[in-house]
Write a structure and sequence with these properties.
Elements: E1 2-3, H1 4-17, H2 23-35, H3 39-44, E2 49-50, H4 52-66, H5 71-75, E3 77-80, E4 83-86, H6 99-106, E5 115-120, H7 126-134, E6 138-144, H8 147-159, E7 166-170, E8 187-190, H9 205-208, H10 224-236, E9 242-246, H11 252-261, E10 265-271, E11 277-283
Parallel strand pairs: 5-6, 5-8, 6-7, 8-9
Antiparallel strand pairs: 1-2, 3-4, 9-11, 10-11
Helix pairs in contact: 1-2, 1-4, 2-4, 6-7
């Protein structure tokens, strides 16, 4: 037997020694999740006894983390916008940068208004599910090429009790949609693959060895997904409807040019908390 506080501190110190980027948080998340308690409960229940089997499991998973496996992959879940999201091998781990897109959409959408959202390349469903959870009169069509990713997204919709407003479709970008502009969505949102193919091998092992390449590879210049998505979206967005795209830090000018070429107006580029260009917004005309 070992006390929870002591176990946490041991794991934290091992993570520090392994130069994990955020050893305190990763140790807290690992120990609290596997003990089935909240982060605050871990600190409040320092003397809670942990049985030998749980200690072994936590230590085994700590070894995986020190070996470079992301904590979300080890636990099979990741926190995003204050909610827990399940993951599988077909889904990208949702990252804090993407919360910039969530904030941009929510700040431009009335809390009590009905809203229709199409989430292109939904992956784990983190964007669509979060928006539905925050906007109780919203509904979302969630599109992904991967059936495995969609299965994960559906589970997350159930987890957060929005499954009756979450409609999954297996398709490539907007190919499944054949609607008049008058029937289109209020928002098209997407966090598409935007990393240049030549840069992929330069990414950290935590990313390239564990995130699905399909969700990362944006082609030779990182813009393949935007070049496919924007023309289709422009044909579907009625006047006043919007598109919100996550972008790479150096892609604002290219994506803005593409949006203008397809007659989308009121273009905005929004920065993330680190001051990097992160989201491109535009409105149908």
């Amino acid at each position: 037997m070992m006390q929870a506080g002591r176990l946490y501190r041991q794991i934290r110190d091992r993570f520090r020694g392994a130069e994990i980027s955020d050893p305190e948080l990763d140790a807290k998340l690992l120990v609290s999740t596997l003990l089935g308690i909240g982060l605050s409960d871990l600190l409040l229940n320092d003397a809670q006894e942990v049985d030998a089997a749980q200690v072994r499991e936590i230590e085994e998973k700590a070894v995986l983390r020190m070996g470079g496996m992301p904590l979300g992959r080890i636990l099979g879940e990741r926190e995003f916008y204050g909610r827990r999201f399940l993951l599988n091998s077909a889904t990208l781990e949702p990252r804090p940068d993407t919360e910039t897109l969530i904030d941009a959409v929510l700040s431009r959408t009335a809390g009590d208004a009905p809203v229709t959202i199409w989430d292109i390349g939904t992956g784990s469903g983190a964007i669509a599910v979060t928006l539905l959870a925050e906007r109780p009169r919203g509904r979302a069509i969630a599109i992904d090429l991967s059936e495995d990713a969609l299965a994960c997204a559906v589970n997350n919709a159930r987890l957060h009790s929005v499954e009756d407003r979450f409609h999954p479709i297996c398709a490539d970008y907007l190919a499944a949609m054949d609607l008049d502009r008058t029937e289109g969505p209020d928002w098209i949102v997407s966090n598409p693959p935007y990393i240049c193919s030549r840069v992929l091998e330069e990414l950290s092992p935590e990313v390239i060895d564990h995130d699905p390449r399909l969700a990362l590879d944006g082609g030779e210049n990182g813009l393949n997904a935007y070049a496919a998505l924007v023309p289709q979206a422009a044909g579907l967005l009625r006047s006043g409807a919007r598109i919100a795209l996550e972008i790479g830090y150096d892609q604002a000018a290219s994506v803005e040019k593409l949006l203008r070429q397809h007659d989308l107006g009121e273009i905005e580029i929004i920065k993330d908390l680190a001051g990097n260009d992160r989201v491109a917004l535009a409105r149908g005309t």
